[in-house]
Design brief:
Layout (H helix, E strand, L loop, with lengths): L1 H21 L4 H11 L6 H19 L3 H28 L5 H34 L1 H21 L2 H20 L2 H24 L1
């Protein structure tokens, strides 16, 4: 068991070091983005919503085709991949890179690796569920996808995408400030109350 844990820890450290090396040119930008997403200042949440709203308003006004939208998005990614590593040290100043910043950068890369591992783990468990209980798997998938398809029919595509993107960008800050755990706890208590009431009625 200990050997397995050590092997997993060593693999995690190796993957984190590899990711740090790959993202080294983006270090300053990642740290600034991390501060914004974790709401280190009170005006960051409205700034995030404002920026997302502006981008989606532009998309709504321009109304590009799917091919044009994908092409522009990939083009912006390519430009960022080329320009950011070259311009970031000049804008932020590489001499200002401190031990604390390096530690935070390491934590971010480690969290990204852990998130990637969780996604892969969920994907493997899904296929294991398919192999072990194929009927339940297909029933669950059909019901879930039907609900998603129904939601997609009720809500405009662009507005639904706007809500999803806004939620994902606000999630780190909501999580850090305990808002998600607070409302999740409230929802859990309400569910427990309903279950207890149901049990009393059955008695």
């Amino acid at each position: 068991m200990a050997e397995g844990d050590n092997r997993s820890s060593n693999q995690l450290a190796a993957e984190t070091a590899s990711l740090e090396e790959q993202l080294q040119g983006w270090g300053e930008v990642i740290l600034v983005t991390d501060k914004i997403l974790r709401w280190e200042k009170a005006w960051f949440p409205p700034a995030i919503i404002g920026a997302v709203s502006f981008v989606f308003l532009m998309i709504y006004c321009l109304d590009p085709s799917v091919l044009s939208g994908v092409s522009c998005f990939v083009m912006l990614l390519c430009l960022a991949d080329y320009l950011v590593p070259a311009l970031a040290p000049r804008i932020f100043g590489s001499s200002k890179w401190t031990t604390e910043q390096q530690q935070r950068f390491h934590e971010i890369c480690s969290n990204l690796v852990k998130t990637r591992r969780r996604i892969v783990g969920w994907w493997k468990r899904l296929f294991a569920f398919k192999e072990e209980k194929p009927k339940m798997y297909f029933t669950t998938m059909l019901c879930s996808l039907s609900v998603i398809a129904w939601i997609g029919q009720q809500v405009h595509n662009l507005f639904l995408t706007y809500l999803i993107v806004s939620f994902f960008l606000l999630f780190p800050g909501l999580n850090k400030h305990g808002i998600i755990s607070k409302y999740a706890g409230m929802a859990k208590r309400e569910v427990n109350k309903l279950l207890k009431q149901k049990e009393k009625k059955n008695e």
